[in-house]
Design a protein that fits this description.
Distance between the termini: 26 Å
Mean pLDDT: 88
Radius of gyration: 13 Å
Largest sheet: 6 strands, antiparallel, barrel
Strand content: over 45%
Structural class: mainly beta
């Protein structure tokens, strides 16, 4: 199923958007929050960049920090890849209107 998620058409954003990632490890009860940047989106996934380590197999809430229309998406962290700039996370999201929301706040790809 992870292969199907990665095959979706990803839309790189022209300008990264600030996000807060509230994640909960499947093994622990506590919720941790890290700041990140939304880099790209697909119909059911988001690619974000964080600088702090995040547990894989985490349920999460991704909060887009738009001043006028903030929104939260529920999801699951699917993969992490270390880059020169931080840790890139692939997040599967339950909501199927991600692209519509991003267009409504003026995000461009």
């Amino acid at each position: 199923m992870h292969d199907k998620r990665r095959q979706q058409l990803r839309h790189p954003l022209r300008h990264a958007l600030p996000v807060l990632l509230h994640h909960k490890s499947l093994r622990r009860e506590d919720v941790e929050t890290v700041e990140g940047l939304l880099l790209d989106a697909s119909e059911q996934g988001l690619g974000i960049l964080v600088t702090e380590p995040v547990a894989l197999a985490s349920l999460c809430t991704l909060e887009l920090c738009d001043e006028e229309r903030p929104r939260r998406f529920q999801g699951e962290i699917c993969y992490a890849k270390r880059t020169d700039y931080g840790i890139r996370l692939g997040i599967w999201v339950e909501d199927d209107d991600i692209l519509g929301y991003l267009k409504s706040i003026g995000a461009q790809w």
